[in-house]
Amino acid sequence: MNAAGFASLPDLAVRTLGGSVVAASDESFADKENLLNPWAPAFQPQTFGTKGQEYDGWETARRRPGEDGALGHDWAIVRLGLPGVIRGVVIDTAWFKGNFPPYASVEACGVDGHPSPAELAAADWTEIVPPSPLGGDAAHAFEAGAARRFTHVRLNIFPDGGVARLRVHGDVVPDPRLLAGLTVDLAALENGARVIGCSDMFYSVPDNMLFPGTARNQAEGWETARRRGPGNDWAIIRLAAPGVVRLAEFDTTHLKFNAPGHVSLSGIDARTGDLDDPGAWRELLGRTRVQPDGRHRVRLDTAPDAPREITHARLDIHPDGGLTRLRLLGDLTAAGERLLTDRWNELTPAGTGHRAPPRPA
Questions:
Q1: How far is CA 263 from CA 51, 304, 320, 342, in A?
Q2: Domain-located, residue 355
Q3: Closest Cα to residue 81, out of 155, 8, 166, 11?
Q4: Residue 241 pLDDT greater than 80, yes or no
Q5: Is 201 helix (H, G, I), strand (E, B) or coil?
Q6: According to the UniProt entry, where is the signal peptide (predicted)?
Q7: How many degrees, rounded to 5, is the angle at CA 303 between CA 302 and CA 306?
Q8: Does residue 348 fall inside a structural domain?
Q9: This model's pTM is above 0.85
């Protein structure tokens, strides 16, 4: 997968998805936490603090050889907000023109639970980006070379300098132990769901609807352009795994003059139906009115004796507008639990201490 391909995948490390810089060798000039800021790096010249020019990034002190003559290098350890398979990494040196590191590498590890920085330092790290040259004031995209589930990455810079952003793009691999047997959000990005198609994303991408938490503003949701012709806008969500959706939440918070007038929801089991066949989709919720700037929770009519197991959901908004969040609460089916468990075991190396239980029969 090239850089253009992996850049469309979720940033597993971004702060808004729960990423955190848990440790760094040095942050003398600029804070390590800036590496994961969700916005584009900013710069204002001649803004000098007590430690020099202020940067929207991470910057270390100038290294000097020690008594043994060794120069060493700086590093930062990042806990991924969404553990998964890393497909590519972007190391952005925006605004660092005379103080960028000439080389960088990236390592990754998979550790169960909530390890401390000391425990992470002793973990089994795998190099996913070898030492590679960097330039100043530029974004550098690197494909990652290990198809495994990782929980942490370590950015190494040689020998020192500043990096504005670290982006870690990949596929979410949820822990099936946290989902099996529970009511979960089958449309949550953190559970492995994705938007795989939409009619329009003029103002913002539809994956934003699947983010955790509450949107801080309308830019953190999905919003389409104003529709001038017939029809309506839509988005197709691949669920975390096959399941039965029992409650839907349509959140228009912050969308005061650009919320849809109505929404509707349909579903399909892609194992037996064709996503491109309109007749294969089954209605889950008919056209329902929504109001601006509010949450709308609707219990779906799902008979216990005939559960509607689906793999994908289609959200239709009438005629256009946007949502800040979409929640589809329900249950994984036995097939869904098997799928997640098999994928987990395939991507989690033996001996790491976090193998999933046997898959359901």
A1: 53, 25, 10, 35
A2: no
A3: 11
A4: yes
A5: coil
A6: none
A7: 105
A8: no
A9: yes
